[in-house]
Amino acid sequence: MSGLEIRELEAFLVLAEELHFGRAGERLYVSQSRVSQLLRSLEGRIGATLVERTSRRAELTPLGEKFLAELRPAYEALRAAVDHTRATARGTGGVLRIGFQGIIDDHLANAIGGFEKRHPDCAVELTEIPLADPFGSLRRREIDAAVVLLPVEEPDLVLGPVFSRQPQVLAVSPRHPFARRESVTVDELAECPLIGIRGPAPEYWRHAQAPEITPEGRRIPRGPTAGTLQEGMGLAAAGQGGMVLCRSTAEHQGRRDSVVFVPLTGLPESVLGVVWHAEDSGQARAFAGEIAVRARS
């Protein structure tokens, strides 16, 4: 165990799930070459090959499969021990880690406040979820509940109450022809390349945020892709295409000098939902209950 690096183990675990160095790098927020470097270092410590590389994908060796089976429960136990010790050190009965996409609006802020009032022995920690990876933090057990944009079709995750229904807007450069319009219809998107989302997010989720076909069946041209909201705003400001956002996120951006937000009609409303692991209960469900109460009011 001398000199063993936890980052090497994390890289191996993610690569074992993705079986692709590029996707593993996106999930870990490092380059593909860095994933390869971490794996080589781990294999050097072990003294054997764990992953067979090909031009298109990666495959675990028999030893890699055995190592994965033994490592995963040990790694989860290690994370649980750290979380438990952190909660004890804080003198609380627990910690609820909530991830969110976009901004914390009044609905979400009130739900958090309600949860803290009902559960004073539980500390709440907030962290922003990368736009390009709505579910990764949950699966890596870095958070306990996630507030994400719909749709959610993940079999290992539970979708709880939905809330914050918002009309959609189109972010474009002030030089774009749509910038002078009072509104734009979804069918007119056939005249505007849409900025997509790049990263480990499921394909169905990425397509929902940047549709490819109008209701009339016209193809919407593909623009560049972005890994973060700020990157997408930068591409829109540079005239590389339009980006679909919910109205509250657009209002929070407030970049009227470089990006114009035009109301977009004909698309379903943007909706947020609370998601947690199917195996989990307790605090995440209690927080979802606070969201549900406010969604009904």
Automatic annotation (TrEMBL):
Domain of life: Bacteria
Pfam families in the record: HTH_1, LysR_substrate
A GO cellular-component term linked to this record: protein-DNA complex
Gene Ontology molecular functions: DNA binding; DNA-binding transcription factor activity
Record carries keyword DNA-binding: yes
All residue ranges annotated as the HTH lysR-type domain in the record: 4-61
Keyword entries, A-Z: DNA-binding, Transcription, Transcription regulation
PROSITE patterns: HTH_LYSR
CDD domains: PBP2_LTTR_aromatics_like
Family, as annotated: Belongs to the LysR transcriptional regulatory family.
Protein name, as recorded: LysR family transcriptional regulator
